[in-house]
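Table S2 (text version). Query chain:
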Amino acid sequence: MFKNYFKTTVRNLWRNKAFSVINILGLSLGMAASLLIFLWMKDELSVDAFHKNKQNIYAVYESVFSEGKAETGYETAGLLATELKRKIPEIQYASSFDGGGGAATTFELGDKIINMRGGAADSDFFKLFDYKLLQGTASTALDGPDKIAISRKMAEEFFGSADAAINKSILYNNSKSFVISAVFENIPSNSSDQFDYLVNYPFYLKTVDWVTDWVLRGPKTYISLFHGSSPERVNARIKNFMDAYLGKEKEGAGLHYELGLQRFDEMYLNSNFKNGRPDGGRIAYVRLFSIVAVFILLIACINFMNLSTARSVKRAKEVGVRKTVGALRSWLIIQFIGEAMFFTLLAIIIAIVLVLLVLPVFNGITGKQMVLPVAQVSFWYMLIILVLLMGFVAGSYPALFLSSLNPIKVLKGSLKFSLSAVWFRKGLVIFQFALSIILIIGTMVVAKQINYVQTQNIGFDREDLIYVPLRRDPGPRYSVFKQEISGMPGIKEISRADQEPTAVGAHAYDMDWTGKNPNTKTVVKHITVGYGFLKLLNLKLLQGRDFSRDFTTDTAAYIINETALKLIGYRNPIGQPLSIFQNRGKIIGVIKDFHFLSLHDPIEPLVVNLNENTSAGYALIRAQRGKPREAIASLESVYKQLYPKFPFTFTFSDDEYQKLYKGEQMVGKLSTGFAFLAIFISCLGLLGLVMFTAEQRTKEIGVRKVLGASEIIIFRLLSKDFLQLVGIAFIIAAPIAWLVMNSWLLDYAYRTTISWWLFAGAGAATVLIALLTVSFQAVKAALANPVKSLRAE
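Corresponding structure-token output:
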């Protein structure tokens, strides 16, 4: 029996090649898209989840509450880890961790000078986490001031192997020699913390002096609890832990610090905060695309249903004959679901090939290094379940419908479909196109927002602006670098800042001014700059003046932005007193607000102070228009002359700004691709319904043509109903799309508008695509010879 069913399936597939190709194509595209999304979701969910003790590892986040607002992040006081372990008995291990902010550090061995990225951590770090050690032990890896742990990659770069590197010395930043006490396996790509080396934390405390101040935040704090400990209890105990270390003079009324715990393996996907508590993040993208994957699979299954139903007239007599000779309905259901599973099996094979072809491009868009996990048994189990599930869903309706046909009516040729069956199929098409239109509108809104943030005037000129990281001592100070570079080919202007202008994260917690309410504490951002900073960035000066060498007192002067002025409340701010970090000075200028963070965040109060004579931070260089290459060549020649032991590195301001929106750019590209796939697969379903209708109305079309109906009238007859379905789908989809995208835009403090023309464009594009799809079969039916159709009837 099963052999007979298999032969019948193969014969039907071969006889109806066009139908089979369309059916398999729809299923394979849907499954390929879903497999790609599955791989991406699996990778996202695996980030930081590889540590064996993950259920007991936590990150500490710190919230600063000021004037009813909370500023929360993973940056904590530098001594917090040590004190938590000392005071909270449930904590087994604790480690501070500073990843270096992505900055590269220079290492030297003989004639090899290489930049590596890394940071600093406490001696508990390798006890806390399961980073594999190739050489050394977790207890001794970072337990001394002269010890450093390096990656396999770094060991091979300098020594050839991990074995050869252990207990050897290496020069750090041209200033200190470290002994390699451990070599760890290269950090996997699914780790949120990426580093090639870790120096011991005591060394870090000595070199970064501000980190010992409890009011300032920088490193992350990770802890692990003893098995059986209650995280809720620990969370309650550490909530007001900072009170004992800040003191009344620093905390004061109106400014309050709180600590909280978050599972370490949940940080990556839930790194947003609201009201001092974790509140989503990238997990929203995971949920979004999981829904998209399900929708695309549903659309593909609906296509199969519609296409199978469209061919039901030709299969009806086969069913009638089988029933007449005694076939049970249950066996017919098994036959048609089996056919659906056979189609699905062919589709999954094609889908795997498509995934292999597309995966490199998909990795480029998502920034991942994903591969098909063919060596994992669970992957093949998943594919088997997918084939069975899709085969059952796709084949269920055709199987139930065809197996229910009355053999007498079928063999008499009086097969008709009930009104409910017709509307069910039309409802499926409406559902398909509604999902497609939602995806199209969503894609257009995402593209509009991305264009908005890329072209928005953020308040300073990013064009031809270059950042060059400056080296801390030993080495020439910034003033020497500036003097040497000035006037070189391609160089227009130069200044400095201690932070990149699009990533100002330093806080001042004790800003004071005349007339301030003594019971009020505020949190403001601050940036330290060199002469010419305002001119270099083309920042608009609203009141007062810029820092100038003509005024020696400017080293104790401040420039503030509009938002800071509103906070302070001075009517005539120039010359008025202001202090941060207990350094008293005067306001000499007010600048127009500019965006120094992403457009997700509102502009905060900003205080700018002067420090020209330093070797830290970034040199900011404005290249002459159209001459960035000449500027970079000049910078490199001077840099190598002043810092011969350090490789030259630089970034463009525009590139750093775009990094702020990597997530949005990824979503935009993926949603565009999936929207195209959805509309394409939906059109295959529409084509199936047109084929079905044309077959059902063959005799009617023939009679109309014999009576004089033109091809245009026939085309209009077949097209009108389907375009109405698309119109209904648009009416359903438009408000849903608006609600979803409006909610998405609320994450931005500065956002584009959802214009009416987005909906009009999406609707028009969908109608046009549907019309082209319908016209293929409608024109074919309109041009058919009526004599042949009537003879066939």
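Notes on Table S2: The mean pLDDT is 83. The chain has four domains: 1-46+281-416, 75-266, 417-455+663-793, 465-659.
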